[in-house]
Structure of YkgJ family cysteine cluster protein:
Amino acid sequence: MRVDCEGCAGCCIDWRPLSRRSLDHERRGPRPPLDDTYNLVPLTRDEVRDFVADGLGDALVPRLWRAEGDEGVEVDGIEVAAVAGRPAFFVGLRKPPKPVGPFDTDPRWLRSCVFLDPETLQCRIHGSDRYPTECADYPGHNLELDRETECERVEAEWGGDRLLDREPPEGMEGLLLGPHALGSKVFTHPDPDRLAGVVSRAASGDLTPTDRAEFVGVAVGSSPGSTTVNDARAADARDAVLAAESWAGRACEEWRDRADRAGGLGELIDRDADTPTDLVARIETDRGAPATQGWGPEP
């Protein structure tokens, strides 16, 4: 599998404000996400645990889904998808607004992966132990399942060749579907009553640090193949997330504040006020964000 990612990062950025067509692939089918985040990367339980252990738990966010029929449980007046009466969710990487200019466009505020460098449009953790399996295999799972890739969506909108071949890589991991995903990629919260107020904040995009830590803790405390949650392990992980003060978590908050003051998502960057380079240096680099690797020659 070969892809051309330079100047793109379409799978890492919510580029819907730039699109002339509806990019609603995540909202098709019986379980639309409760949040409005685009291409949220699902992490495995072990990946969530390792992010927490590295002090990066504040870079994580949960996703819940709306239920259809009788499969859900009602919280905050919202019917949430559930397994055995327990709200189902996965944990992904936060996507704060950043000043990015994909596809040779002028930089504007678009939701971007917490680990995406807004200048190089490269992942800051690519090739590291924390690089998610889902990202490493992308778009292999789509090709394996004969589903449209983000590469092809970008090609249809902006032209060029991004997906250079359609052969899924060998040895892909992380494609957990159905019962195999339970406790390993899809988790269940053991106490719906404890989520009063939390579910409505998830739907409005206003989750608090305590809200996020609650779900991350449950994910770490989960057991593969079951809805069992180890309360002690979950509590330890929840406390670790609340204590985290990583460069990534702090950058998320400042990016969001700056985007709100600048007019919100989709707005062009005011270059007279701050250049993207200055912003990235102050908000990410100076806080300890790792550098990206640069674009090497095409193999």
Remarks:
- Strands lie at 60-64, 72-75, 78-83, 86-93, 97-100, 108-111, 116-117, 122-123, 187-188.
- The longest strand covers residues 86-93.
